[in-house]
Amino acid sequence: MKLIEDEQRIHMSTLKEVADKAGLSVSTVSYVLNGKKRVREETYQRIMAAVDEVRYVPNQLARSLRTKSTLTIGVIVPDISNQFFPEIVKGIEDFSYEKNYNIILCNTDNNPKREALAVEALLSKDIDGIIFIGTAESSIMLQERHNIPIVVVDRKLVGNYISVTTDNYTGGYLATEHFIQSGHRSIALFTGPLLITSFFDRMRGYRDALFNNKCQYNEKVIIECDFTSQAGYNAVQKNSAILESVHAIFATNDLMALGIIRALLETGRQIPADIAVIGYDDIYTASIYYPSLSTVRQPKYEMGKEAASLLIRSIHGARIEETQIEMKPTLVIRETCP
Questions:
Q1: What would the pLDDT profile of 191-214 be if each residue is shown by its tens digit?
Q2: Which pLDDT score is estimated for 46?
Q3: How far is CA 199 from CA 5, 114, 226, 234, 280, in A?
Q4: Contacts with 285 (C-beta within 8 Å, 6 or more apart), sequence order
Q5: According to the model, what pLDDT value does residue 273 have?
Q6: What is the value of pTM for the model shown?
Q7: Ordered structural domains, the chain, with CATH
Q8: Which residue, 193, 73, 206, is CA-closest to 134?
């Protein structure tokens, strides 16, 4: 008890400094920092600015005993070997570090059972919130566990979740329209599972770009597969006859695109002279691969920072006015489709 009493004396002194800076009462600041009171966004930002200015850092052990808060958030990702996700995680971790939060990272290999186990493991550690990138099948499971703040990233799930995504429809449209403007009319789509909203929305952008530019929409050249390099490679080999009349391929992630390029080169087709390729994500390898990959860039690091900001604000009781954050993608032109 002495540890807690000593910490409370120091804690109250520091809270008073925060309260004075923010122009608020000590009790209001304490309630907000402990996630027990919701306030207007302006008030929350005043408190957070004051916290940063006086460099307020509570004693975490005593704080967790008193408030049941561990200053820890869980991050669930589907494939940590895919370069797309570590950049999101870096954004999450950098922002969390600034706010004195730690993260626990779980990898699930896009397996709903592993996602459920990860959620249970994180909840057993009394984490304060979860940032989730996972399958649509986990939507119900998360709803049942929605007793702590949750932010969904990259994909939208059924339910009332705060989410951070990019405008995947526009990304798919940009890639397809660039093909058309470059003179390509027969364009294949290699997509990840269409049950995942991000892939489905990229497919819609592809389809509408074809329709709006009076190009043929051919379901035979829409090839659904896993979103790995090996899956892209295998899909080209499996559909080689269909692809003989195709002069451009839009792959809905970069790893898939790199596997596609490898398979095409092995068949003797030149890129982009015989067939052009555009990927999606703009992972690091895209720029150093040969030929360098044209792609749709997602602001991965910024998505992670925004997700962490929304989650931590929710943990502290801030009202989140805009719950569906959709960032803008950009088209990056390199050698595979100039």
A1: 999 988 899 999 999 999 999 999
A2: 86
A3: 53, 22, 11, 19, 10
A4: 83, 254, 258, 293
A5: 94
A6: 0.78
A7: 2-67 (1.10.260.40), 72-166+300-327 (3.40.50.2300), 168-298 (3.40.50.2300)
A8: 193
